[in-house]
Amino acid sequence: MRLTPDLIVRAYAGGVFPMAESADSDAIHWFEPRRRGVLPLDGFHISRSLARTRRRGKFRFTCDADFQGVMAACADREETWINPEISQVFFDLHSAGFAHSVEVWSPDETLAGGVYGLAMGGAFFAESMVSKVTGGSKMALTELVARLRLAGFKLMDTQYLTPHLASLGGVEITRGDYRQRLEDALRTGCDHRQAFGPSGTPDGAVWGR
Prior knowledge:
Number of helices: 8
Structural class: alpha+beta
CATH topology: Aminopeptidase
Helix content: 25-40%
Low-confidence stretches: none
CATH architecture: 3-Layer(aba) Sandwich
CATH superfamily: Leucyl/phenylalanyl-tRNA-protein transferase, C-terminal domain
Strand content: 15-25%
CATH class: Alpha Beta
Largest sheet: 7 strands, mixed
C-alpha cells in the first residue's frame, strides 16, 4: 500500500502510524501501541540550565524554515524507521500545511537541533527529533511545546515513551485513554498560524519557568 497524505491523515486520526523496517527497506508496518507515549503540555519539565541557555540568546529558533533538513537529520542514523517513502509523504504533508518542523540554529547558522511532526486539530503527533549539539533536541522540543501551548493544543503524541521523554514529563497512557484524548483533541479548534509562525515564542511561554 503506497503512502499518501490522505492515508496518513486518516491513519493518525484513527490512532495508527507507520514505520519502516529500516532506511533501506520498502516494508512499511502500522502500529497502535497498547501503551501510548504522550507529553502532557501542562506537565512539561524544563531544567534551569536549559532556560538559561535560551535567555542568553545564543541560539535562534524557527518553525518550518528547513523541514526537509530536519527530517533528513532525524533519518541520518545507523538505525532508523524513516525510509524514502515516509520522507516523501511527510514532505507532501508539509507542503499541504499538515506537517511542521521546529529548528534550533547555532551562532554559525548550522542546525543545532530539531523536531518534526504532524498537526491536526488540537493534536500534534511528534515524529522524531535530532541533536547536533548537546541539548539541541531538548531546546527544539521545548520551543515546540511553548508554541503548542500558546495556540491551545490539547494533545502531544510521542508514540512511545523513552527515558529522555520521561525526564521531560512524558507518560504512558492506555490505548483507550489515548483514543479518547485524541478524539477530544481533533475536535479542538486551534490557531495553527500562531503555533507554526516563523518567529520564536516569547521566553515566558515555557522557557521562562
